Amino acid sequence: MSAENQTPPVLEARALGKTLGGNRVLDAVSLSLPKGCVKVLIGPSGAGKSTLLQCLNFLIPPDSGTILLEGREVNGKSRRELCTLRQNVGMIFQDFNLFDHLSALENVRVALMKVKGMSKLDAGELALAELARVGLQDKAALYPASLSGGQKQRVAIARALAMDPKVMLLDEPTSALDPELIGEVLAVIRDLAQNGMTMIVATHQISFSASLADEFLFMEKGRVIESGSPAELLRRDSGSRTLAFCAKISELSGEGGEAEVLAPECRV
Amino acid sequence: MDFTVAYNAAREALPYMLGGVVWTVGLIVGAMLLGLALGVPLAVLQVYGPWPVRRAVGTYVWLFRGIPILVQMYIFYFGLLSWISALPLFSGLGLDSPFVAAVLVLGLTSSAYQSQIFRGAIQSLPAGQLKAARALGLTDPQAIRSIILPQALRLSIPAWSNEYSILLKDSALAFTIGVVEIMARMRSIASTTHEPVSMTFLAGIIFFVLTWVGVKALNHLESRVRIAGYTRQGAA
User: Fold this and answer.
1) What are the beta bridge partners of residue A69?
2) Do strands A215-220 and A89-92 pair parallel, antiparallel, or not at all (unpaired)?
3) Closest to B230 (Cβ–Cβ): which among A91, A93, A100?
4) How many Å apart are CA B122 and CA A194, to the nearest integer?
5) Shortest Cα distance, chain A CAs vs residue B44, angstroms
6) What is the pLDDT at residue B234?
7) Contact B128/A84, CB-based, under 8 Å?
8) Measured between CB atoms, which of A101, A115, A163 is closest to B150?
9) Is residue A89 within 8 Å of residue A165, measured between CB atoms?
10) Residue B227: which of A54, A79, A101 has the nearest Cβ?
11) pLDDT on residue B56
12) Any idea where the domains of chain B sit in the sequence?
């Protein structure tokens, strides 16, 4: 995070506001993603995590506030600026959203051809390399319907990475997965983080994200009410809302007190 | 009724009746293609267009679904097209022919119905498909062309083959403005042979065979473009 002072953050949101159906879903949320940093959004469902992530690339246009990509404000009304923003901001969805009529390879290839204007051959080569990176080169010809959930999410990650994004938004990337498939996706995400990808992840995988995150952002009712390093927020005597929430999650998921698992990591 | 007489009359009439098949096939191929060419953009506009456009498409659909084909045939043939072809600019283009009028009426009506088939298919796709395409930087027209329509059109084929079979039978109304298709020939030969019943049976059989062949062909198309493991019902 030392780069924060010299260069502008890769992605920055200032005072984002969004009202949906009379509800204040986002209430003046600001956040900044310096290069190489990993931030994790946690909080109860309905807190606005997903809306926040989708506002960052204008999938949901915010009512107020500004988005800055590498220090330059993005005009959400300009089609060209939107496309540039989205090319630079990769997004991973909870339910994968692979294109069902395209094979794994074609899923990765399509935007390379349509958006980046690459030839079919070049795009295919790059797509195959990206699939290899997530360990799925042998599944390139398969359609989404014949892939497991974990494989689908890894194809989705390959698809986003192929665009060579500067930052990745991950919206509960493992929430729709069977427990035994979560690991393979988390491994890919860990790999990304270790290779210096700038990321913001909404997740309920507390212990996993605690080991990766530079910062936890705890959201509730459309606002970030707590933020800090995982170690700070999850310290047993921190009395943080985050700690209480995480304790409840681990109780429910029956992991036998995840806070216990976390404690040693957090004392470091 | 003597069956043998009826059978022989029908057999003798067959070549003449089959000559009408060319016109019937011409009508439905023209009308289905016109309906497709207009129906797809209409559906896209009705789903993604701004509200005045959506409203306009809705009105268009109401008009063509609400006015009987027979009435439209008269309006187009005796009215609109005869006036238009009287204009110097359009004279000599053959716009006043009954065949053109019939293809237009059937095609425009079908475009109204087809647009609703495609609209339903587009709206049945998960919203995440468009979101994912946008998130990758595709523009909306690109996303619609390469992501939405390839899926929606596949889903539309069963309803589309239903539309074919309906349109085929609607095409029989073209005889009222003088297209010499199957029905017109049936009526003329029935009056000369005095075998109306057997000629009607024969026409019915020919229509049935055309329906059967067309629907089978579309079923075949459906299975050819099917994607491995991707069916709406079977989706786990």
Assistant:
1) A11, A72
2) unpaired
3) A100
4) 40
5) 19
6) 42
7) no
8) A101
9) yes
10) A101
11) 94
12) 26-181
Q: For chain A, what percent of residues have pLDDT higher than 70?
A: 91
Asked if B128 lies within 8 A of A97 by C-beta distance, the reply is yes
Min distance B154 CA to chain A CA atoms (Å): 9
CATH of A2-97+168-228, one of 3.30.420.40, 1.10.10.10, 3.40.50.2300, 3.40.50.300: 3.40.50.300
Name residue, tokens 């019915």.
B204
Query: B137 and A163 in contact by Cβ < 8 A?
Result: yes
CATH top class, domain B26-181: mainly alpha
Two tokens, residue A27: 């209430």
Of B128, B131, B139, the CB nearest to A83: B139
Instruction: Extract the tokens encoding A49.
Output: 């995590």
Q: Which of A53, A59, A91, A97 to mutate to test the interface with B (most CBs of B within 10 A)?
A: A97
Kindly list the strands in the beta sheet with A64-69, ordered across the sheet, starting from the edge strand earlier in the chain: A23-33, A11-20, A64-69, A72-73
pLDDT score recorded for residue B105: 93
DSSP label of B139: -
Burial (CB count within 10 angstroms: exposed 0-12, middle 13-18, buried 19+), residue A264: exposed
pLDDT by residue (tens digit) across B92-116? 777 778 888 899 999 999 999 999 9
Measure in Å the smallest separation between the Cα of A174 and chain B Cα atoms: 16
